[in-house]
Amino acid sequence: MGERTDDNTEYRQKILKKIIKELHKGVPMEELQETFAELIRSTSPDEIAAMENALIQEGFPAEDIQRLCDVHAKVFEASLEKVGKPSKIPGHPVYDFIEENKEADKILDEMKKLAKKFKKGKNAEEDILQFRELFSRLKEIEKHYARKENQLFPALEAKDFTGPTKVMWGKHDEIRDSLKNLQATLDNEKWEELYKAFKEAASRIDKMIFLEEKILYPTSLKKLNDSEWAQIKRGSTEIGYAWIKPSDLWDANLAEAQKERIFPRSPGIIGRTVQNCHPPKSVHIVNEIIKAFREKKKDYAEFWIEMDEKFIDIRYFPLYDDKGQYKGVIEVTQDITEIKKLEGQRRLLDW
C-alpha cells in the first residue's frame, strides 16, 4: 500500500468509494460528513468532478453520488470563495449562465420577502399577486437547465466526462420537483405551508448556482475550446434564455436560426448517448427500449403526453446500417392536438 499523502489522488478516490458504498448501505450522511469534508477540503473542483466521473463509469449509481452534492456546497463554501468568475466576456455561454444566476438571485430575494409575510399570516391580496408574478418569472429557470442538459452536457460527454453531468441532471430534477410542490401549494392557497415550500425550492436553486459557478463552469472552461463553445452558443439560441438577452460581443458572427420545437433540442445533441438525453430516473426504461431495438423485437416505441394544453405524440425509431446492425435511435415528436379533434371525413375535393 502506498504512503498516504494529502495529494494522493488514488487514496482520495478510495476513500470516496468507501463513503459512497456506506451511503448505499443506508449509513446516515451525518456519520460520514466529517470524513467526506476532510477528504475534499483540500481537493480542487477539477479533481472532485473527475473522481465523480470515474466512479460513475465504474458503475456507481449516479443517485448515490448525487447525494454528495449538498455536502459539496457546504464544504467548498469556504475554500472555493477564492475562485474567480470563470468568464467575464459578454455573450460567452458561461457569461450568459452567470447573468441568469444573478437574475434568479434577485427574483428569489423578492419572493423571500413576501413568503416571510405569509409565514406571519399576512396575506394581503397585492402581496399574493406579486408573489404569483415573481413565481411565474422564476419558472423561466427551466430554460437555464435545458441549455445545460442539451448543450453544455453533450459537449462535456464528448470529452468522456459523463459522471458529473448525470449527477447534476439529477439535482435539476430535484429543483423541478420543488417548483412543482411550490406551485401546488400556491394553487391550493395553503399560505401556512408556502414559506416552507418556497424555502426548499430556493435552497436547492442556491446550491445549484454555487455548484455551477464554483465547479461546473471552471471545469468546463478548461475542457472545452472556443470552437466547442461556439457550437454550444448556436444551439443555445434555439433553446432560449431565462430573463436575459445575450450579448453578441463574444462572437458576433454566430448564426441564430429560429426553429419551432416542442422540446429543447439542437444540433449539439446529435450523436449523444441516448441514455444521457434523459433524467437518471428514466434510464432503465430507455435501456429496455434499446434492447428491444437491438434484438429487432420492436420497430418503434410510442408515447403521448399532455403538455400546456397540447397533446404530444413521441416516437422512437431504431436506425440500422446496410448490414442490419443497430446504430442508434432517433426521436420524432409531433403536436397532434388538432388532429385529435378530427371527426367524420374530408376528401380531397372538399378542400
Task: Characterise the protein shown here.
The protein has 351 residues and is mainly alpha-helical. Helix content is 58%, strand content 8%. The protein contains 13 helices and three strands. The protein has helices at 9-25, 29-40, 45-57, 62-66, 69-79, 93-119, 125-138, 141-157, 163-187, 191-223, 226-239, 283-294, 337-340; strands spanning 301-307, 310-320, 326-335. Strands 1-2-3 form a three-stranded antiparallel β-sheet. A hairpin with a 5-residue loop joins β2 and β3. α8 runs antiparallel to α11. The longest helix is centred in the middle third of the chain and has 33 residues, at 191-223. The protein is globular. The protein starts with 8 loop residues before the first helix and ends in an 11-residue tail after the last helix.
What attributes does this structure have?
single chain; 351 residues; mainly alpha; 13 helices; 3 strands; 8% strand; globular; disordered N terminus
